[in-house]
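B., you asked whether I could sanity-check this one before it goes into the benchmark set. Here's the sequence:
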Amino acid sequence: MTLEQSPAPSDVRTVYDGFGRIYGSVWGPNIHYGYWENDADDSSVEVATDRLTDLMISGLAAQPGQRVLDIGCGIGHPAQRLVRASDVDVVGITVSHVQVADATEHAAEAGLADRATFQFADAMDMPFPDGSFDAAWAFESMWHMPDRGQVLSEAARVLRPGGRLAIADVIQRDPISPDGRVVLDHICENYAVRSLGTIEEYRTALAANGFVDVEIRDITDNVIRTLLLMADAYETVHDKLAELVGEEQATSLVHFVRRFGSIPESGYVFLTAVRA
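And here's what the prediction gave me:
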């Protein structure tokens, strides 16, 4: 895969422990994109983000009683929804101690502390035995990974044969124009993004790591509205952002999120696969 930037776990942690909390305060508990059926769909951000979670749940097709790994769990709200919808046990991992604490607290408040647990762990070196999970998902976490191929290798190792994998990820779509390159490079350089992969890179990496029955959907048209709404949300807390990262960086954040939502190179993929 194309691996050009190099965020360390500490860089990802800084992003989410810092403005990630401000983001959550204006966006809601689902710190991910939303899914709208079409241009006429006027669903709220809350409804649209839950809808994308439900798409992931459907693709994962986990069965009651199974054990599911949440790779890059954030503050755990998608995991809670998965537990309730599929009657499974979820183990979430993240490189943010703040997220571990928040996710654990939220699960306890929801009465799910025994079904959704969270721990600090590196997705490229997971502390789990071989074949210890029935299914796994990575929900908008792969673009932060220094080596997505290594994450897929670890996912294949900890999944039992026949275990399902679901991924939702921000990607780049070719061809890349000069203006698009400026925006993509800015995202990588400032928001702990290792690189933006492509659909073909995912196909290659999944096959190389023993995944079969791969199904990939480009759902950019259904989710891209997220970025424009996110930019609007950031503008409402501009002063808080400026206190955290400085006036110039806060203004740049809003500007580039809006640009990222308007260039054709900005894409989004939803995929499922089975561990052979």
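One thing to flag: The longest strand covers residues 159-172. Otherwise nothing jumped out at me.
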